[in-house]
Amino acid sequence: MINYPNGKKMVFEQKNAKKKNANDLTVYKNRGIDFENDINSSLEYYDDNGLAIITKRPTPINVVHVDYSRGAKITDAYFEKQSTTDYNGVYRGKYIDFEAKNTKSKTSLPLHNITSHQISHLEKVIKHGGIAFFLISLETLDKVYLLDASFVISFYKAKTRASIPVSEIITKGIEIKQGYMPRFEILKAIDEAYFHEKDI
Amino acid sequence: MINYPNGKKMVFEQKNAKKKNANDLTVYKNRGIDFENDINSSLEYYDDNGLAIITKRPTPINVVHVDYSRGAKITDAYFEKQSTTDYNGVYRGKYIDFEAKNTKSKTSLPLHNITSHQISHLEKVIKHGGIAFFLISLETLDKVYLLDASFVISFYKAKTRASIPVSEIITKGIEIKQGYMPRFEILKAIDEAYFHEKDI
After folding, report:
1. Which member of A6, A72, A161, A193 has the greatest number of CB atoms within 10 A?
2. Residue B106 gets which letter from DSSP?
3. Using a CB-CB distance cutoff of 8 angstroms, which residues of chain A are in contact with residue B90?
């Protein structure tokens, strides 16, 4: 019955609320949250401007007990593993599905925090004609890349390395331009990666 | 800070676990849960057979406190309103988005439990080229219909009635065939409603 969290982002959010900037580790974790917040604000911008509707899936929670005497307060629950990805939606008639990953490593993105369920999910998305990718934040370089899921899937399945080298992400990925509104130019990168000039 | 539940299905599930079949109301509520379970098992069948990947969005929960001394147990949290819809995914290259509604009324589907956020979300889905509909269970008739979201949106916006007459659902909707595997022939109805014969 007890589920330990993979809902790490949420957990970190809670922790950070209490001891923000308390140590370097927390700062790193905050950056992960910043990355997520920046994605969310970018998607909100796209939504507000009628450009795409892509939303974050809520973190699944296993609710064990609800106290109805206190305004339906949940008093016993556990984070569950997300068996799919963080984000999905529709853009230019196409199904969009992606997972966001942040790394503070200067050399590679570790694969250990990508689950086999997520790889399987993204494979199915591609099979059914959807667009699937990873948004990868290379913290120390202050760069964000769109990396097609098929590349990550191949890498994951080859099992020759436990991480994707940064050099590969830069070569195979498309850099996400950063600005103010939207914070991340995600749609421009999707256009470049998945739509031909003539479609635009 | 306190969010009262619209996450009714989840709430009912909890309640039913304790007093199953205790009264007629509970039985009705159980039917709502049965409807949802039947949709979920149908989608699982489609997934397992490589036909489509459509998943249920988790109920959003506002987590106020997590007790890390007890295996990341959530001890204070509240259900939040789903601002989008229950289900989305990809089928035959198209983005699919739908909301499931169950009614025990013999005459009409009340609109009060469809939120303006959901209507707005479905409008955007259509605008961006996705397929958007409602799956409506008419409990007392033991029938399930796919009803295009644009029809529901028009009805909702006209504000001339607080509910959609069953006669309209039957006329404008496509009946979902019911069986064993899958329980609901959702994809067949999508084919009929949104794909031309030549595409199949």
Report:
1. A72
2. S
3. 95, 97, 125, 128-130
Neighboring chain B residues of A97 at a CB cutoff of 8 Å: 90
For the stretch B20-38, pLDDT in tens is 333 444 444 566 789 999 9
Whole-model pTM over 0.90: no
- Nearest CA of chain B to the CA of A79: how many Å? 8
Is the ipTM here above 0.95?
Answer: no
Strand runs labelled E in chain A: 53-56, 61-67, 73-79, 87-91, 94-103, 108-110, 131-138, 143-148, 163-165, 174-175
Cα A11 to chain centroid distance, Å, stands at 16
- Cβ-based contacts under 8 A for chains A and B: 128
Q: Which residue is it, tokens 């080859």? A: A158
Cβ–Cβ gap A78/B74 under 8 Å: yes
Residue A98 amino acid letter = F
Q: In what order do the strands lie in the sheet with A174-175?
A: A53-56, A87-91, A94-103, A131-138, A143-148, A174-175
How far apart (Å, rounded) are the C-alpha atoms in residues A81 and A104? 23
How far, in Å, are A163, B31, B162 from residue B140 at the CA level? 55, 10, 20
